[in-house]
Amino acid sequence: MSGEGVEAWQTIGAGRGQGGILIVADHASARIPDDIDLGIPADVLTRHVAVDIGVAPLAQALCDRLSCDAVLGGVSRLVCDCNREEDAPGLIPLSSDGIDIPGNHLDAAGREARLARIFRPYHDAVAAAIARGRPALIVSLHSFTPKLETRPEEQRPWQIGILYNQDERAARIAIPLLEAAGIVTGDNQPYSGRVLNATMNRHAEGAGIPYIGIEVRQDLIGDDAGVMLWAERLAPIIGASWDSFADAMDDGARRRA
């Protein structure tokens, strides 16, 4: 499975198979396809508005430690934000954190073409990965900024945020473990998964699969050393959370036998 993918997505890892862990990273890439001109300065692609900084290497490091698979988004969220419902206005953003994106002023046909090219293939890939292995736990991996450009007065002191919507099962395991490890942890912070949780609503909550939405503050994983440190800190917590649900799956299988 390592390195497979097309334009809209990439899969990495060599997973546990049935009942394992699946990592999903909607915003892992800053890539803009060559034939799409967003009309933005090139340096914007190095910033959080374009990509979740540090998430792609962190996903790889976690896959290595946990022997699991990941599905990574293959293009910048400025092209198509896959962590949105298909009819959401911000799916093809006209602006982001104060930056205008003139190349996203599309007519209905242009919007449909972008959905067919990026959004739907990405979600098809996530659904296929789930169907292959029916994971016991899904990990939604993102990073967040210490502050927003448009709200610099709003400080974000958390090192890790755990997000969830209606299904809190894995969050209630992970948050105490993170806090016991001395990690400053936000409970549905820096924003609430009850407000923005589209990918996990669709693929985890919609299928009854436990999940953890993990947000890592991007300044902590902005270089290789930070990525390795946080992979080491997060892997045992993800593993312990997975153990709870894998055991439950095993018990269910034994009862059915």
Automatic annotation (TrEMBL):
It holds the Pfam family FGase. It comes from the Bacteria. SUPFAM superfamilies: Zn-dependent exopeptidases. InterPro entries: N-FG_amidohydro, UCP029730. This is N-formylglutamate amidohydrolase. It comes from Sphingomonas oryzagri.
